[in-house]
Specification:
four-stranded antiparallel β-sheet, rod-shaped
Length: about 475
């Protein structure tokens, strides 16, 4: 069975009000009843003590004292009787007072000097009364007592009147709660409907919808979370579009990268098979096939390496490494390649500089960056620097080459990005996959890498790796 939210609110609010007023009415009625009976009892006890005190003084005759109090108490609808130890009334003949009707237990209690108090007594007399019996002691000996009664009809009427006002208050409270419940329910239902409509809009593919949010209550927080979710969905949608565009660009780049060497290899093989290449050129053709084959292998390996890194399949084996030793290995491996472009590799490193990294991956990072520096530098200098900075190892690779346009710096980390799109048939200007792998490896070491460059004035790669 479907029950609307607004009816649930009504039912819950009104139920709470009714239960609260019932409990309040019962508790308040009991409290008032106890208070009224207590006051009535204290009044009777006070009058009884005063009567016994005046009788004990002996200034006036007992009949006079009793008559004086009788005139006062009759007006307050209070009756009393004074009796001796034999339960004989001492009241004047003109006024007898209520009869003395005590049980054996009560009489024993009274003779032992203990008063008897009954807030509500319906058994002794033909109407409900409050009853008080006080003992009269002479030097500690029981010689009589005084019994006072007062009807409680007025008390019951007072309690009934209070209950009537409580009932009226409950009706007013129910009306106010009904009105507030209706207003609040309408507000909440409207807010929920907006969320429902926005959800339907999102399910239809529109991720630009927004709903009013606040920190006032849970619905406002839910709206804020909904807006955050929509923003993330919108970002994801944009990212998916970007990824799709990059996928297409990647396929285009891979096709181009593979087509060129494959075309070269195919042409040379056909030429060799059909004896179309002169004998003097065959050696050169075979070398070219070898180079293009190695280039294909490099492209495939780099793609595999990149995908392994992206899918967290690469495990790092971290250790303390002397930075100068790594730099010397890089210098030795790339010195010949640098010499082909009339470049020099220089090392500037602190003696105590160390790095906490995976040795093989660190070498891979530095070789990739240094190769790119050699590729974009001619008749220049490539400098490898290393130093410690607090708890970080800072590595800098700086060249004096052609530099990178500031607008292009963030793009160099993309796969197959080319710095000079007009020269795609030439290795010069192509970053390939190397720098994409470099950034991933640095991030795996929980480090940071940044590039500082100005077109025509060289480039500097700065790597910061945490040391332990």
């Amino acid at each position: 069975m479907k029950v609307k939210y607004i009816y649930q609110q009504f039912l819950s609010h009104i139920s709470i009000i009714i239960v609260a007023f019932l409990i309040l009415s019962l508790v308040f009625t009991k409290y008032v009843e106890t208070l009224v009976y207590k006051n009535k009892t204290e009044e009777l006890v006070s009058y009884g003590e005063n009567i016994l005190r005046d009788l004990d003084r002996g200034v006036e005759l007992p009949d006079q004292v009793i008559n004086q109090y009788a005139r006062v108490l009759f007006g307050r609808d209070i009756q009393f009787s004074v009796f001796d130890e034999n339960i004989q009334l001492l009241n004047p003949i003109k006024w007898r007072g209520p009869a003395i009707e005590l049980t054996e237990k009560e009489w024993s209690q009274l003779t032992n000097g203990k008063p008897i108090v009954k807030n509500y007594d319906l058994e002794r007399y033909n109407r409900a009364v409050t009853l008080v019996v006080l003992p009269y002691l002479d030097r500690g000996r029981f010689v009589g007592g005084i019994l006072l009664t007062s009807p409680i009809s007025g008390t019951r009427e007072t309690i009934a009147e209070i209950n009537k006002y409580l009932f009226y208050t409950m009706l007013i409270g129910l009306f106010v709660s009904f009105l507030l419940s209706w207003i609040l329910s309408r507000i909440h239902v409207n807010r929920i409907k907006k969320l429902q409509e926005a959800t339907s809009t999102v399910s239809a593919g529109d991720y630009t919808v927004k709903v009013p949010s606040s920190d006032f209550d849970e619905i406002g927080e839910l709206a804020k979370d909904f807006n955050s979710m929509v923003d993330k969905l919108n970002e994801s949608k944009s990212e998916i579009v970007n990824l799709e565009n990059r996928r297409r660009q990647f396929m285009s780049d891979v096709s181009h990268e593979l087509r060129t060497p494959l075309t070269t290899i195919s042409g040379i093989v056909e030429g060799l098979r059909n004896d179309m290449i002169p004998e003097a050129e065959k050696e050169r053709g075979i070398n070219l096939v070898s180079q293009e084959t190695k280039r294909l292998i490099r492209l495939v390996n780099e793609n595999l390496d990149y995908d392994k890194i992206r899918s967290n399949q690469v495990q790092l084996h971290l250790e303390d490494i002397e930075l100068v030793e790594v730099f010397e290995i890089i210098q030795e491996q790339l010195e010949l390649q640098a010499g082909e472009r009339n470049n020099q590799i220089r090392i500037e490193v602190e003696d105590s500089a160390k790095v906490y990294a995976d040795y093989d991956r660190l070498v891979q990072i530095l070789i990739n960056i240094t190769k790119n520096s050699i590729q974009f530098t001619e008749n220049g200098m490539i400098t490898l620097r290393g130093r410690m900075k607090e708890q970080m190892t800072v590595i800098e690779i700086e060249d004096t080459g052609i530099g990178i346009d500031p607008a292009e710096i963030e793009k160099i980390w993309h796969r197959f990005y080319k710095a000079d799109l007009s020269r795609t048939s030439n290795p010069f200007g192509e970053f390939g996959l190397g720098l994409s792998i470099v950034k991933q490896l640095v991030q795996m070491h929980k480090g940071k890498i940044k590039v500082e460059s100005e077109h025509g004035k060289g480039t500097k790669f700065v790597i910061e790796l945490p040391f332990r």
